[in-house]
Please model this.
Amino acid sequence: MKQFRLTVTLRLPADETEGMYLAEIPAMAGCRAWGNSPTEALDNLRAVATEFIRSYQKYDHELPRAIESNAKDLSDKSLAEVSIYL
Model:
């Protein structure tokens, strides 16, 4: 398995985010999550990103290059892990 290190954009609460923090991964179109705090938004995003990657793997699709180029091989682990960096 691989570990993915992905850059995240974190937006402060605003009207367009319904008063919540919004975290998203620019390299993964549509991969975003909301939370009542920065930590909650990032935790939610980590779960969404993990499922996004698992879906690509399940259907044997190629991950976008920006994601794959930041992957680290973790062949001794059973699940893909996502590390989020700001």
About this structure: The chain has one domain: 2-85.
